[in-house]
Amino acid sequence: MENQWDKRYSEPGFAYGREPNAFFKEIIDDLSPGNVLLPGEGEGRNAIYAARNGWKVSANDQSGVARDKAMDWAENEGLTIDYTVEDLTNFSCSERIFDLVAIIYIHLPWVLRQAIHRQLASCLKPGGMLIMECFHKEQLLFGTG
Q1: Residue ranges in 11-144 assigned as alpha helix (H)
Q2: pLDDT tens-digit series, residues 44-98
Q3: Residue 59 backbone phi and psi in degrees, to 5
Q4: How many CB atoms lie within 10 A of CB 133?
Q5: Three-class SS of residue 7?
Q6: Whole-angstrom Cα distance, residue 71 to residue 80?
Q7: pTM reported for the whole predicted model
Q8: Among 17, 109, 128, 98, which Cα is nearest to 62's?
Q9: Coil, strand or helix: which one is 143?
């Protein structure tokens, strides 16, 4: 799937725009900044928003093209983001360091979804928050998600 995402993110502009996801924005606007993990972050729209608002951002995606776009954007704004390229099936946290993990429309095969969600939740500090905005199975009828 990596080549699929590199191809998508290689197109001009930003595939999902430059504004943060509305649900993500609504949630973090009411929280005190801390450490946030953004798996499957794509071109950085949520990472940039969080960093602008004082969050220490860690992000990852399987697309190097998406990472490069996000890092260029962050650099142009004078923001710091820790952004790695990795497949979520290989992702793990060595410590519980995140105040917030935000899973926003990550494309995951159903056979892997539960294990990956558990692994991401294990990265939270005690009292940390996991938020998710996900696809419904009927989304498949629309050829997306």
Answers
A1: 22-28, 45-52, 64-77, 110-121
A2: 999 999 999 999 999 999 999 999 999 999 999 999 999 999 988 888 888 899 9
A3: -135, 160
A4: 14
A5: helix
A6: 8
A7: 0.89
A8: 109
A9: coil
